[in-house]
Amino acid sequence: MTDDSATPDTAHARLAGEIRRLRKAAKLSQPELAQRIGYSRNYVSMAERRSGNLPSQPLVNAIDTVLGAGGALRGLRGQAKREQRDLRLSAATGPANVVEAADQKGLALRLAETDSTSDSPQLGPNLEDVLSHLREQWHLLVKTDNLLGPRYALSGVLSQLDAVEELLASVRPEQRRDIVRVGAQYAESASWLYEDMCDVTTARRWCSQSLEWGLEADDQPMVTWALFRRSQQVAERNAGQILSLVQAARRASRDLPTPMRAALAQQEAYGLALDGDELQAQTRIDEAQNWAATDINGEARGGHGSFCTPDYLEVQRARCWLALGDPARAIELFEHHVPRLPTVYQRDRGMALGQLAQAYVSYGEPEQAARVAVEALRIGRRGSSLRTVADVKAVGGRLKDHAQLAPVSQLIAELAAG
């Protein structure tokens, strides 16, 4: 076992000690903290080591946020990075081109060149290459999320946001707009991923950042999309605020790609269903079908809203019927369209199965509800979709009076296994 007392008092050592102290103060084990930040336990263990590799910036950012360090951990990491740079510079002469890895997954973060007269990185001639790389990585991370869930996508998204923030720290004003536009995409993705991990506070913070950057870049479709995402973060039964935000999104940009129109229409349908307006809710879903997307690769190549395939929209129609208090119609649609969702959309499948389980409970079919809930639970846990897991836990709570039934007993056992 390493003797921490023998470790030099470096910023790296202080960072590791502070992470450990704050984690214990929050009464979290290493696995529990790992689950909250979307990393494996090994990453947390590595971050608490006083020697060896310095933990990545995205990892420290996530820990700082979850443990409420208020930027202290970020500051220590920055100091440790400067200490490492000073040691390297003392052993080398002249300017150097710097290419850093984002994390152990090997995503490239930035291309910069060091000015020999300044400690700050200056943008080199490769800015457009960097932006092209960031745009391409966004599509790949969207697919990672759809296939595997936030656990596997979040670290990459945070890594690229770190790259964006470092570029913005040294960019000239005339270059800022394109970087901010890319940053808004990543901020919105971070918002979505944290939302799926049931961290609504952080999700809203990133959504606000996306909106701010979208406004700065005069990217009206991005502003619209940020408002749409904000409508998804509203308390479940607050129909008025959902509808108000969707209407604000429509006003923000009237010239939208058809997938975004479909997404807005289905979200407005859900708000109308919560408000008890059956006719208008169904009309909005019909309108959304006119703008349905055809993305079966899960990479959002057609832009925001590409997930709104015809079957996805019918699943949302089923969700509306459930909100309207008609589980029979909801079940019929769920059963027909969930199996037809593109296979890449695993997280959407898990969420839809969780809603189908709720419909079965409302319809008085506890055994079928439990069977479907177990399937949803397994999908949710594979991808760390804590929202899906929370939906299944709610189903388990509603089924507790049927614990004598074998499928319900299995569901309760799997929930308890945690």
Structural description of this entry:
By secondary structure, the protein is mainly alpha-helical. Among the domains are: 90 residues, 434 Repressor (Amino-terminal Domain) (Orthogonal Bundle), CATH 1.10.260; 97 residues, Up-down Bundle (Methane Monooxygenase Hydroxylase, Chain G, domain 1). Helix content is 68%, strand content 3%. The chain is built from 19 helices and 3 strands. Strands 1-2-3 form a 3-stranded antiparallel β-sheet. A hairpin with a 6-residue loop joins strand 1 and strand 2. Helix 6 packs parallel to helix 8. The longest helix is centred in the middle third of the chain and has 24 residues. It is globular, with a radius of gyration of 23 Å. The N terminus is likely disordered.
Summarize the topology:
Layout: H1 11-25, H2 30-37, H3 41-47, H4 57-66, H5 72-90, E1 97-101, E2 108-114, E3 121-122, H6 127-148, H7 150-170, H8 173-196, H9 200-216, H10 220-232, H11 239-252, H12 258-274, H13 278-290, H14 310-323, H15 327-337, H16 346-362, H17 366-382, H18 386-398, H19 406-417
Helix pairs in contact: 1-5, 2-3, 4-5, 4-7, 6-7, 6-8, 7-8, 8-9, 8-10, 9-10, 10-11, 10-12, 11-12, 12-13, 12-14, 13-14, 14-15, 14-16, 15-16, 16-17, 16-18, 17-18, 17-19
